[in-house]
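Narrative of activities, Objective 1.

The group set out to show that a structural description can be obtained from nothing but a protein's sequence at a throughput compatible with the screening campaign. Below is one input-output pair from the validation batch, recorded exactly as produced.
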Amino acid sequence: AEEGGEAAAVEEAAAVAVAAADEGAIRCIVQNDDMNLGKWPLYKTQWRGAGVAVPVFGLRSQEGMGVGEFLDLKAMADWCAKSKMKILQLLPVTDTTTHWDERDSYPYSSISVFALHPLYLRIQSIKNIPADIKAEAEKEVKRLNDPKYYTDTQWDEDLQTELDRPLHYPEVINTKRKLLWKLHQAIGAEVLESAEFRTFFDRNERWIRPYGVFCWLRDFFGTADHENWGALGTGKVSLEKLRQLSAPDSDLYKGISFYWVVQYWLHLQLKEASEYCKSKGVVLKGDLPIGIDHDSVDAWFEPHLFNMNKKTGAPPDDYAQDGQNWGFPTYNWGEMRKDGFGWWRARLGAMSEYFHAYRIDHILGFFRIWEMPATATGGLLGKFSPCLPITKEELDREGIDDIDRLCEPYVKRHLMERLFGHDWKMIADKWFDSWGGDTYRFKPGLWSEVAIRDIVAREGSPIGYKQPKEILQGMNTLINNVILLRDDHEPWTKFYPRIEMWKTSSFDELHGNTKHKLRTMYEAFFWGKQDQYWADEAMMKLPPLLDASSMLVCGEDLGMIPACVAGVLDKLVIMGLRIQRMPPPSVESKFGSCDSYPYMSVCTPSCHDMSTVAGWWEEDHGRRQEFWNNMLQRPGDAPGKCTPEVATMITEQHLWAPSCFAIFPIQDLLAMEDSLANHNAKSDQINWPPNPQHYWRWRCKTSMEDLLKNNNFSDRLKHMVQNCGRDGGY
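Output recorded for this entry:
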């Protein structure tokens, strides 16, 4: 559309949600008029909106079976409309079922990037459900919502706090599983024969057929690890083979088709919720996880698209000082590129059936991903992939020639004494070979966090009075005590610096001149050498994602941010994320200044991977005081608790920000109203990133029914949004 363009041109552009201009170098963001967002024809129009972030599992209602469900999003849309909130942001809603217990509560560990999670299905609302099964489902709803069900203290080991009626994941998912199987036996055949189901299945056969077979095999073998499935678990399984296994005359058909029918029901309910959000002028924003589970349909059916011998995660940051290891295989981008990123295009196409916008989880992974060997359990032995290495020639020029000393774990007697005390010799004899003097090397096959973990799990602690956890911490310190990592393919000529090498005793015991040279190479490696290379990588991968759908794209760009990221996101018109407590490296202050945020950004006071505003306020006295005096510009001592007044001031700061979107975790909004706030603020944190096995079971303290009844709060929030110009107008 030309500047000041005509309505017809704008409406035509609105149909695709992102229109190209300036020969594709700049994009203008527009949105459908029927979503009541106002016309957004030009980049400079400065339309701004407000929204709320909440995981579906965290919603609480009288109809939900002990968990939030897709149909609860309709009540959330009603509340958003009352409060002038234009965006409803979710965590991933794809299936994560590998164990049928709390280990599956991690929403970013998808077993299928297409399949929806059965957890979110409202069984009693399924069309044509028999009366007896509906009555049984309604009985389970009452049981799992009854406060008396939570008679025992619900304690979170990671957060070290008591939880208020949290999600009981194993009980909920297995109750639903039993009810759904009964329902499938009663009406499944009728559904399978319906024209509506056939249309759905034919449109999605590429993913839903392997998904159904995968789920049946997982349950039959008692494990999602397909390497334990014999001939069906190794090598490439063809679609024709899957058609044979799942044909109507197959003995497996009833079990396999069960999962197809459940997906159809989930599709109908999420589609209903999505359409309702649209009718209320509320953008439903999804979440695109950066990885897939190692034991997933995608890794089993299309293993050539992934590096199955690698794990992905994140380097050390404010979330996790030792880095993160998510256990996901990394992407084989070279293979994905061969068909024009078809897997990604299909994935985004499926999301666009339900969502109007989406957040790319860890968008930095499209520039480079933090990659660990399969032998790692932590994140310290990772390196960015792809990246340009430090070469043997570069090391030679600096006079650094003792490569083995730098690349192998530096294990000395005094270090083992410090880690394990006077019984250090028991550790040395069990896992090390003497290498002369006070130096030791790992026995063959034991320079591995996975190997040591498995031995300790099987045999217990080798030092009786020390807990296994203490032994593992000490051993991991030794395993990670290296300075350089060797390249997989050219181990004698290409190397990579271990992240934060200066924190190792191996580095500490080098000569001063060698330390200086290595630090200089380290800084150049991470902060300059890779920039153009990583920018080119992102420009090769991201445009196909943007072109795969009309959804608006936002990127979570937190962590160790390369200098090239801002330019690439700006060129592609992808909104970055701004969290006040985590300013980007370019900001010298401890806090971001909301009034300086760029328009093409999403600002938020917190997210699911950190404490809420109220939780942070109580846990860090020093930073709280600094924030009170400098960011809120209030004199004297900061209050010890995050009062509703404090929460309101922080919310208003973000509402006034220039950012296109200001999105608030629902916990931070409810903190503005004393009757709605969770006074155990620590328990409102959803995830604990240092523990990849964290049990995700947070639920909102306030039910949807009570939230909708509280007109004073929604009116107050509406007026705040309107006063700050975020009500959808100009």
